[in-house]
UniProtKB/TrEMBL annotation:
Taxonomic superkingdom: Archaea
Keyword Secreted: no
Reactions catalysed: (7,8-dihydropterin-6-yl)methyl diphosphate + 4-aminobenzoate = 7,8-dihydropteroate + diphosphate
Protein name per the record: dihydropteroate synthase
Length: 196
């Protein structure tokens, strides 16, 4: 979230590890959303199956943890994490620029020993992108398939839907519509909040 406060490592562990431990006996895969290597390692040890890193594996320590544990990783494109709402990012072509940045992140991951088959890419809708840019990414989402990794879209209830006059409490319909669009365009994974 824009302007999110960073949670200390031990506090983050205290919040998530008991939940992961309780869920680990279920058959559903568990993804831990963290940008901290120590938290990711502890979460994997507690039963998490996937690491979702909003920094795109910027940290060498996070790359090492993912490689050593040989778990799938969601590699998200972001300029800042957490997002700085006062920073304006200028792209020459948002899709080409994000694909190029993700390509570099994938290569760094591979150099760290992470198999490309373990990498899922997320173009990071709303993370350092104006609503118009996020919609441009969605309209050209097929271009991310050239990265050779599954593509994830996290669009659920995003503020980008303000562009189509949907306030915070009116974002379910555009989320469902965007999920349908993503599925139609062969997106591999959608991250949503409203699961039925």
């Amino acid at each position: 979230r824009p302007g999110a406060v960073t949670v200390p490592v031990e506090e983050e562990k205290d919040r998530i590890l008991p939940v992961i431990s309780r869920l680990a006996d279920r058959s559903a895969p568990i993804a831990v959303d963290t940008r901290k290597a120590d938290v990711a390692a502890a979460a994997i040890d507690a039963g998490a199956d996937v690491v979702n890193d909003v920094t795109g594996l910027r940290s060498p320590e996070m790359r090492r943890v993912v490689a050593e544990h040989d778990v799938p990783v969601v590699l998200m494109h972001s300029i800042d994490a957490p997002v700085d709402p006062n920073r304006t990012v200028t792209y020459d072509d948002v899709v080409e620029d994000v694909v190029r940045d993700l390509t570099e992140r994938i290569l760094l991951a591979e150099r760290a020993g992470i198999d490309r088959e373990q990498i899922v890419v997320d173009p990071g809708l709303g993370f350092g992108k104006a609503p118009e840019e996020s919609f441009e990414i969605l309209s050209r989402i097929g271009e991310f398939g050239g990265l050779g990794c599954p593509v994830l879209v996290g669009h659920s209830h995003k503020s980008m839907f303000d562009l189509v006059d949907c306030g915070a409490d009116e974002r379910l319909a555009p989320t469902v519509a965007t999920t349908t669009l993503a599925a139609d365009r062969d997106v591999d994974v959608v991250r949503v909040h409203d699961v039925a």
